[in-house]
Each structure stands twice: as structure tokens, then as C-alpha cells.
Amino acid sequence: MAAISLLSQFNPLANRTIDTDMDIAIVGAGFSGLGMAIQLKEAGVENFTLIERGDEVGGTWRDNHYPGAACDVASHLYSFSFEQNPNWSRAFGQQPEIFDYIKRVAAKYDLYRHIRFNTAIREARFDEDAGIWHATTDGGEEITARVMISAVGALSDPAYPKIEGLEHFRGKLMHTAQWDDDYDLTGKRVAVIGSGASAIQVVPEIQKQAGQMTVFQRTPSWIMPKPDRPIPEKEQSEYRESPFKLSKRRYRIYWMSELFAPFIISDRPFFKKRAAQIAKSHIRKQVADPALRETVTPDYAIGCKRILISNDWYPAIQADNAELIADGPARITEHSIITKDGREIEVDAIVCATGFKVPSRAAPFPVKGLGGNDLNAAWADGAEAYKGVTVSGFPNLFFLMGPNTGPSHTSVLAFTEMQMEYIAKAIGHMARHDLKWMTVKKSVQDRFNRGIQKRMKHTSWTSGCNSWYLTDSGKNTTLYPGFNWEYRMRLWLFRPSEYESAPMRRGAESSRAAA
Ligand code: NAP
User: Fold this and answer.
1) Ligand 1, atom 33: nearest CA belongs to which residue?
2) Domain ranges in the chain?
3) Does Oxidoreductase show up as a keyword for this record (predicted)?
4) Which residue, judged by its Cα, is nearest atom 27 of ligand 1?
5) How many angstroms separate the CA atoms of 121 and 36, rounded?
6) What is the distance between the alpha carbons of residues 27 and 23, in angstroms, rounded to a whole number?
7) Which residue has a Cα nearest atom 41 of ligand 1?
């Protein structure tokens, strides 16, 4: 079974045909939503609609088009396993190429005709008697569906920093996730707030253009060398000619990532020490000044925040036109930033590389399930789901990239593809048994999450730093505390006995009554 499960990562469309005409609404047309739609199509289901608030597919790869935007997962793994791409031009894909890939896949599987663009869901409520979700759009329209799948992404709403005076700034204000391509940075005095994953990509590009660049680093990141390289045309053509070779490369990257997972996830000193050695050596090689070395060396355990990869961040912050300030701004005026030690730095533009509002702490939109129960109330102590996919009391509702399914060491798609398969199996079960609704038992969900949180105590993420992975009370509701292969095995089987359900036909016995 284990071997089959591991191999299945390259065959996620292996579900059998689903014979159903039930309406399915998928919220979001990024990687997850599109992958789910393909999964359904391949199972013979056509009666689905993707509801997308933007005007194009692509989600995070449509929105994050700041200069330097790229993926820190190797290209050959950061793509659908059933739609591998031999034509990646770099070992680590850049935003335009990834965005093109997503659009190409959407067109190839004829998904555009299923998508309602420029439509955001404002709220959704479940009608228990009819077994139907009623979702209201921002235009006030009502959309009904038997099954609703949330594919809204883990990080889609930009978070601006709470800094006194920011609203009064009269220069150009941009967030990395809301980049204005028409704004010319050439010769400008630019401030960048943040030193996380987005900052380390945008800063080297800004430094090349700006007259003066000031980077506000509140907390340094652990940064590893980036093993990036262009993929020559000859190698690409080998992948085109040999799908085996292409899959072999994907497998290799996948299993190397799994091999290194403990160095990122585990809080054991053995792993931490070795990982930190590599990152410190990177600093020593790229930063000559001892004072700056100290400033950019984190004082928290490596892996606690996301480990970043870059070869050009340290050179960029040491360039003649650059300055790194080892703190956040104290306040902002109409034309300048005031540092914590009282210095005034005049700037033309402020770039906020300050991250996102984290939806796994809250419902993607107000959701009312069985008995009118509110999802946000159910998640008051932190979001929880069964296998990250489904929440007790919220029937026929599924999540992609739900709570505790974020990857720390591998491609998010390695997680979401398995979720798509699991959801298709659940829908197939509903169809075969003519179920009005189905929801996971609370006891099953609780047992799963007790296990997750128990393991969480031994991870780097709970070792004492502040990160978007954690809720205010310090609970990690975002990441999966283990190997991807192990998560895949957990999702391999859909077990109806873990669910309670209500039949469509009158008079048929409800498993809820029996449960
Ligand atoms: P982030 O990791 O949350 O980093 C936000 C940065 O802004 C941090 O350095 C934070 O400092 C700083 N910040 C926030 N408020 C501030 C304030 N008031 N004053 C000063 N600094 C402030 O956000 P991100 O860089 O956008 O990355 C978020 C996630 O997106 C990543 O973890 C990753 O999962 C994903 N991402 C992935 C890629 C990729 O290559 N695949 C690229 C970009 C992003 P503190 O650390 O002190 O809070």
C-alpha cells in the first residue's frame, strides 16, 4: 500500500468516474481551484463552477508580479504532477513563467468556460433540509451548490504594516502583492519594509534601479544559498523527448526535499546545528563587515520562520546605494520615514514587503454550517479541520490548503494534489450513496488534531519566534508537522465510517441517527 501511495503522487487523476449531476462550486481559480476542477473533469464531472474574484486565473502568481518574484521550490516540483512541464527555463521558476504555465493548463483543460471572474463570495450558509450551500456574491447574487470547495489560497490578502503616519505618506506606496508595473523606480529614493520571503526577492531588483534604497529589517531571516541555474535548451529538449527523464528529475527533487525535511521541521539540536552552519557560512562568504554579519544573523532557531534562499540579498544590502536599518520604522511622515533612533530619511516610495493576512486563522468568508453554526466561532481557538480538508458540522464543504496543510520543505502542490484526490473520493461517495450531506465526525477530527498539535511541540516553528505560522496564542494552524509522503498516505483512503451523513431520499435511514 505504501509503495502505491508514494507512486500515486504522479497519478493524482487515478480516481474512478463519478456519476453525478450535483452542482459543485469551487471558490478560487489559482493552482488549487484549477487542479480541483481538472480532477473533477477527469472523473467525468462537468457540473462545476469556479468563482474567482480576480479577472484572470493564477491566484498568487497573478497577484505577486513584483520585480524578482520567483518560486523558492524547484520548478520541476512546483507544477502539477499530471501536467509536468519540460520547458522550465530555470531551476527555480520566475513569476512570468509560472503564471504562463497556469494559464496554459487552464486553457488546455478547457476550464475558462467554467469560471466566473470578478466575483467574490461574501458569505455562505448551509441549508440542512435541502443539503445545499447558498453563497452570496459581492454583487448580491445568490449561488447555490451541493458541494462547495474553498480554494482561496493560503496567502492572498496583503497585510500593510501598522506604522504611525503611513496613511499620510504622499509618495508612492506599494505592497509587493499589489505592485504597480507602471511606477518607474529608476533613480528614486525607495524604502522597503520587511526582510521576509518577498523582500529578499524584490530588494536586489530595487537596488539595481533605485538611486537610494533603505531596507527596514525588523527581524533577520535565515538565508541559504539558492541552487538556481538556467536550464539550457538542450536539457529542456531531453525532457520533452523523455517524459521518464522529466519525472525522474521531479522524483529526485521530491525525495531530496523529503530527506532534508527534518533539518527544517525538527527542533532537535542535531538538525538545527547543521542547518545553521550552512546559513552562517553563507553569511561569512557574502558579508565582510563583522557588524553587519551580526545584524543579519538571526537569534532564533533556524526553521522557526520560513528558511529563505537567495544569492543576491546580502550583496544588494551592501551596495553603495543601499542601507540596512536593523529595525522597523518608528513613524512615517508625508515624505519621509523616521527611524527608531530619530533619523529622518526622505523617500519617494515605500514598498511594503510585509506579508499577508493569514486565512487559516479564520474562515475565508463568513460560513454558517449545520444549525447555523459559524465557522469563525468553531475556529475561535485556531482553525482546525480533518486532514486539513473538512470541518465537522460544515457538511459538503471542503478546503484546499486548509488548516495545518502548509508545506515547509516541499511544494505546496504535493499537498494539494492529494487533497483534490481525497475530495473527489468524498464526492464520489456522496454520489454513489445518494447523500444529501456528509460531515466528518467531531471525535475523528479532534483525534486528528490532537495528534497534529502533539507533534507540533517538537517542531522548529514553536521554538520561540514570532511568525505568520502561529496564532496570537502561539498555536500553529498553518503547517503540516511531518513528511509529505506521510501526509499523502493519510489521505490515501477515504473512510465513510469517519463521516455522518443524511440520505437524499425520504425514509432512508440517516447515519447521523445511528452515529
Ligand atoms: P512575511 O514572511 O510575513 O514577512 C513580512 C516581513 O515584514 C517580515 O520581515 C516582518 O518582520 C516585516 N514586517 C511586518 N510588519 C512590519 C512592521 N510594522 N515594521 C517592520 N517590519 C515589518 O511575508 P512575505 O515575505 O510576503 O512572505 C510570506 C510568505 O509568502 C512566505 O513565508 C512564503 O510562504 C510565501 N512566499 C513565497 C515565496 C516563494 O518564493 N515561494 C515568495 C514570497 C512569499 P518580522 O519578521 O519582524 O515580523
Assistant:
1) 197
2) 8-157+357-440+477-512
3) yes
4) 197
5) 18
6) 13
7) 71
How is residue 306 written as a grid cell?
520560513
Dist. CA 177 → ligand 1 center (Å)? 11
- Whose alpha carbon is nearest atom 45 of ligand 1? 219
Closest ligand 1 atom to the C-alpha of 197? 25
The whole-chain average pLDDT of the chain stands at 93
pLDDT, one tens digit per residue, over 395-427 is 999 999 999 999 999 999 999 999 999 999 999
Q: How crowded is residue 285: how many other Cβ atoms within 10 Å of its Cβ?
A: 10
Instruction: Say if residues 205 and 70 touch (Cβ distance below 8 Å).
Output: no
Q: What is the mean pLDDT of residues 435-442?
A: 98
Which of 8-17, 152-161, 496-505 is predicted least confidently?
A: 8-17
243-265 vs 484-492: helix crossing angle, rounded to 10: 110
Which of 201, 354, 467 to probe ligand 1 with, by most ligand atoms within 8 A of CB?
Answer: 354
Q: Tell me the C-alpha distance between 351 and 210, whole Å.
A: 12
Instruction: Give one DSSP letter per residue of 39-71, joined into a string.
Output: HHHHTT---EEEE-SSSSS-THHHH---TT-B-
Query: Who lines ligand 1 at CB under 6 A?
Result: 70-72, 155, 161-163, 193-199, 201, 216, 218-219, 306, 328, 353-356, 466, 468
- Specify the residue with its C-alpha closest to ligand 1, atom 12: 194
Considering the four listed CATH numbers 3.40.190.10, 2.40.30.60, 1.10.10.410, 3.50.50.60, the one that applies to the domain covering 8-157+357-440+477-512 is 3.50.50.60
